Amino acid sequence: MALLDGVTGSGKTQIFFETVAATLRAKKQALILLPEIALTHSFLDRFTARFGTRPAEWHSDMTPAQRAKVWRAVLLGEVQAVVGARSALFLPFSQLGLIVLDEEHDGAFKQSDGVNYHARDMAIVRASLAKAHVILSSATPSVESRNNANQGRYAHVWVKERHGNAKLPQIKAIDMREAGPEKGSWIAPELAREVFATIDRGEQALLFLNRRGYAPLTLCKECGHQYQCDDCAAWLVEHRFRGVLVCHYCGRETPRPTTCGACGVEDALVPIGPGIERIAEEAAVRFPDARRVILSSDMGSNAQLRQRFKEIAAGDYDLIIGTQLVAKGHHFEKLTLVGVLDADLGLAHGDPRAAEKTFQLLTQVTGRAGRAAKSGRGYLQTYHPDHPVIKAMISGDREGFYAHELKIRNEGGLPPFGRLAALIISANEHGVALNHARHLLQKAPKSDGLKLFGPADAPVAMVRGRHRVRLLVQSARGFDLSGYVRFWLEGADKPKGNLQVRVDIDPVSFY
Prior knowledge:
The protein has 14 helices and 24 strands. By secondary structure, the protein is an alpha/beta fold. The chain has 4 domains: about 1-160, P-loop containing nucleotide triphosphate hydrolases (Rossmann fold), CATH 3.40.50; about 170-210 and about 290-410, P-loop containing nucleotide triphosphate hydrolases (Rossmann fold, 3-Layer(aba) Sandwich); about 215-275, no CATH class; about 420-505, Alpha-Beta Plaits. Helix 10 runs parallel beside helix 11 (about 390-395) and helix 11 (about 390-395) packs antiparallel against helix 12 (about 400-410). The longest helix has 15 residues, at about 400-410. The radius of gyration is 24 Å and the shape is globular. About 45% of the residues are buried.
């Protein structure tokens, strides 16, 4: 078991390729897991260039016939290397020798629908059963993995320098309280000047905002009516390019109205806040001569996105405007400037992992800059320049961040020093869900050191017409939390009708 902990651009992929090569020479099978399908194509090209043959693929874009062919080939040992999504863990490997999790920190490795599991944990179990090796690779390891390395449970392979002569980007904060953009704009003047200068030098710039669509909220300026999803406790997000309002939880779409549905006034609807499309609109005005491209998960098929990535790598665009889709796994040699338009976005949630997730995302996206011969720069637009995450980014003190985060987690009894379990009780009626949650709380067995929180409405209190109430359980690290929850639910009334209870041990998402 090894944690491959290297800064962005340090050549981690080439390092674990050497272990893959040794595995294949030993006539064993190797599995490489990636968090995003969008990363698969470029990774396959790199694998083919290194090994002279293309590995088998396993992901949701495959047809049933393709899946059946790969499944059989893996079982018979006809395939030695597989690159795939988390579900590839369950392929019938006959001679498994190595599992690699690239970007091991990524939340996409957690399965939250149906059977809950984390691919990182399951990979360790799968490797143990097969007596195989595991490599967890990341420029920003999860706090859990980093703690395991600190404690000696994992071998810690630490790569502190970028490959070749490339240097890590210089990071600067733009205090939006003092140097923010003019009203109605979202790009600060200092960042705009840097974008101009970068493009003039023939280099590429990236404007990053982790928010899809045009605006996260649409309201009527006459009566104040806010457009919300009928089936979810969420605002409808305007997607102006398609002329629709979309719920990002259930996928419901409705044409963007021209008349307020509450007061009937025409042309009174206004967008509140920026999304990636609104940034693209401003960029078209500010940088009219720049060749621009917008990258977001809802901007075309996976094949179209892969084509955009190839065009960016070839230098066909000067200005990239993107969401977290561009934050990891990409190597653009001409990209030297990254501007993060809302560095505080991930810190605004009641999530115990908020600081960790924000640090990882900011490190990953600014790490796209300066990966070749030319130096890179990153600018963080923030209202909280003194926040520990922002200060760690500016100083480049990743070790200080991990030490601080581990200290906070230890003091609060949070993972990796404690354990959490979330019980989401849902029903078509709020009262039914709340009453069952109260019943469960009454039936909870007493245990020393165990804390129960709730019941309370989940942060997103309704999804797809179902009301959601949450109970949260906190325990010590060595406590058998899974066994406790199983015993607890066996002693309580079973859900009836449309009532459901979903259990998530060690949750990653807290929505």
